[in-house]
UniProtKB/TrEMBL annotation, chains A, B:
Record family assignment: Belongs to the NADH dehydrogenase family.
Chain residue ranges for the region called Disordered: 58-88
An example Gene Ontology molecular-function term: NADH dehydrogenase activity
Protein known as: FAD/NAD(P)-binding domain-containing protein
Keywords noted in UniProt: FAD, Flavoprotein, NAD, Oxidoreductase
Domain FAD/NAD(P)-binding: 90-409
InterPro entries from the UniProt entry: FAD/NAD-bd_sf (IPR036188), FAD/NAD-binding_dom (IPR023753), NDH-2 (IPR045024)
GO cellular component annotations of the record: mitochondrion
UniProt-listed Pfam families: Pyr_redox_2
Length: 462, 462
């Protein structure tokens, strides 16, 4: 989106979105890294440095889940379910992402008692995160607090981390995301897991320490602060030409839709806004998109070619087809032994399972630690438990996109609203069928590519 | 301001101000604390926990200024002034507060070369800070980036801390607020100091550790996060009734205009917004205003009485007339040996000098470490150096208010714009005369008090 961004960026702000476009579809992109180990490491939580304490606490918490189904593994476990007197059918949703929030929004709260457990008290419109990094959109424009859904009781939402599931007693084991000393359980009649996935560092420690993910609001805020900081630092007397060049180099690891769109927003910002307030810096800024495979791999080859040609035409942007194997304070290191300096590193290479998914050892999972579900989204062999969105694996596999999760949430809302009255209808529900609305990606300079079911578009019309 | 705030608070957001009212005048309030020592301690910088790194770095930096006027005290000192080839008269402003920003805004940049050094890259509309804590206003609504003033060269603004002044060579010794390893000097022909004052902890260590100031955007953001956190924590199963009561108690230390207005905003939020989303919490919330002397001491006695009666009528608000002598993690301790628990502590008790003012030992200062200036705002005995706003002491003394600083900035802009052409006019400038526009303070429930030169108002008309 090309608008006058710089004053807004400087103010840590922006205008409200005039119109929120089609949610850009996302594919499970592989990204520009050499896969050393595919299992998640302990340091997987976001490195965002200025995260609100709530998010920071939540992210610390999820990195250390306890074993599931065992009271012993849950110190301070409170065996009494919350609100034991309530006899209505309790539908408990874990996670406030695309799937969980969609289910919360469309479920008929008059017919079932809906509650939610999530470390994040809001829904995030993730496809527009990149726009908030450069001030095109304000952070608040892309979030919706879950309490705006008007839970009738404060206790219907818990800002907590789920540390396990006691499937025999139908209890969720929770730990407050705000104060780890509060541990309790929440009883469910029906449980829906929408815990998503996390950024994948491929066990490269330097990523968490020196890079930024682009998955949470705190990530976008940290990128914005870091960009501003580097622009101001680059003006300081005494900064060498080489150091100025490094400060003004943004390396994006991962050429999927997220990486390409972040690069596009950054390019627009540099072309449109930067010259007004930093006239002498503009010639020094570089955007480096690192992707060993084709960029936008999930799109049609003609669209990919269009996008790549657009990007290569730009003076301020380059594509580097290499594998990153290490990240140090000021450099990314490639598999071929070369390096590239960076001032800001944005890491958008792929997905790893959530710690909860890893820890639920008795749940059936595929190689990516996604919960195996049937055509009604029921977790195979686990009574009264469903999964949706990125953390759920259907056959055949669906892409890990916002679109899929949102549709699954609507589907479950229509099915599960019968829980209190017509259990036969729930048991014999028709299968979930995904009809893609298509994919699109913004590539900068007012151009986008659209991979729609009926036609392929690129350029201004897309 | 009574508007629907809660969804906005939850979203860390709010709407733009429809109209910014008269800047509430501020007096040098003494506040509800026992003065143990009146000199500033080393831990004086804000405790805001989620401050952007730039601000955090700046605030760390200012706590350790070096001695002024000595090259030896400034390791890494760069002796060459920036832009030595520029022969225009260089007016350098230190500080981007009410005084400095007003001068920057009104100075004639065609006639003098204006540049600014400030650790904060924006101007902050401080009287509305309280409104941002509860979501009535968004943070961005009350700040204005200095680069929006269109410096023609990036180097005309330095996000830096001033660590000293070499008056013989007319050099400012600077340290980057973003990276302490960058140290350099900036040459001035004329220097204006608008470095303000800092919150006064009265050497009570616990204030910085457990309380919030209300002086910077980072403070307001931290208060907002803390309020939200406590509301969510108070809903968690397993939280005792006593602990819930503590979490929902906000103690405001200081009954000046800032404290009273923060309490008013909080009261409106509790009455208007809270019941919608936290219906069962509303009876547990308490606001405690601690002030050993009269509240709003700078106002007329009838206005004070009106405000106090309004506050005492509220179920959720009390005034405690005691001295605070210590602050621990969950309690304030009074001089009479009693204590009061708090969930959130907001500390708005008075002002202490900036570290730069303390360190400039050869500058003439009064007991409050304010620079002694003459009627033209020239620092006595220091050639080509002016001071304005809170850090400047005129005779007779003027209050430390936004209004005074803003008027002084306009005055200096008109005087100093002649620097390049008519030095005689500058030397013989008419004295600064302060004509008060009056004071006002919002006390909640749509009521305010106005202490105007012509009349005293209270209630809806104020």
């Amino acid at each position: 989106m090309l608008t006058g961004n710089l004053p807004k960026l400087l103010a840590f702000s922006g205008s409200a979105p005039s119109a929120i476009g089609v949610a850009a579809a996302r594919s499970l992109c592989s990204g520009g890294v050499l896969v050393a180990h595919s299992t998640p490491g302990p340091g997987m939580h976001s490195a965002a440095r200025d995260a609100p304490r709530a998010v920071a606490a939540a992210e610390e918490g999820v990195a250390n889940p306890t074993r599931s189904g065992s009271d012993d593994a849950h110190p301070g476990y409170v065996p009494e379910p919350t609100e034991p007197g309530d006899r209505r059918h309790r539908l408990v949703i874990v996670g406030s992402g695309w799937g969980g929030f969609s289910l919360l929004k469309y479920a008929d709260a008059k017919r079932v008692h809906v509650s939610m457990v999530s470390a994040r008290p809001f829904f995030l419109f993730t496809p527009l995160l990149a726009s908030t990094c450069v001030g095109t959109l304000e952070f608040r424009s892309i979030q919706e607090p879950v309490r705006n859904m008007r839970f009738p009781n404060e206790g219907d939402f818990h800002q907590a981390i789920v540390t396990g599931v006691d499937t025999s007693k139908q209890l969720l084991l929770c730990q407050s995301a705000l104060d780890a000393s509060y541990k309790y359980s929440v009883h469910y009649d029906t449980l829906v897991l929408g815990v998503g996935m996390r950024p994948n560092t491929f066990n490269i420690e330097g990523v968490t320490k020196y890079g930024h993910f682009l998955k949470e609001l705190a990530d976008a805020r940290a990128i914005r602060v870091h960009l501003l900081r580097n622009l101001e630092l680059a003006c300081e007397p005494g900064v060498s030409a080489e150091e100025r060049q490094r400060l003004l180099t943004v390396v994006i690891a991962g050429g999927g839709a997220t990486g390409v769109e972040f690069g596009a927003e950054l390019h627009d910002f540099l072309v449109q806004d930067l010259p007004k307030l930093y006239p002498h810096l503009q010639d020094h800024i570089r955007i480096v998109l690192v992707e060993p495979n084709d960029i936008l791999g999930a799109f049609d080859s003609r669209l990919r070619t269009f996008a790549e040609r657009k990007i290569r035409q730009r003076r301020d942007m380059t594509i580097v087809r290499k594998f990153i194997v290490d990240v140090t304070e000021k450099n990314v290191h490639f598999k071929d032994g070369t390096t590239h300096p960076f001032g800001v590193l944005v890491w958008v290479t792929g997905l790893a399972p959530s710690p909860l998914a890893v820890s639920l050892s008795q749940f059936p999972k595929n190689k990516q630690h996604q919960f195996v579900v049937d055509q009604q989204l029921r977790v195979t062999g686990i009574p009264n438990v469903y999964a949706l969105g990125d953390c759920a694996a259907m056959t055949p596999a669906l892409p890990c996109t916002a679109q899929v999760a949102e549709r699954q949430g609507r589907y479950l809302a229509s099915v599960l609203s019968n829980l209190g009255s017509d259990s036969a209808a729930v048991a014999s529900a028709p299968p979930f069928v995904f009809k893609s609305m298509g994919m699109m990606a913004y590539v900068g300079d007012h151009d986008a590519i659209s991979d729609l079911p009926v036609t392929k578009l690129s350029g201004k019309d897309a």
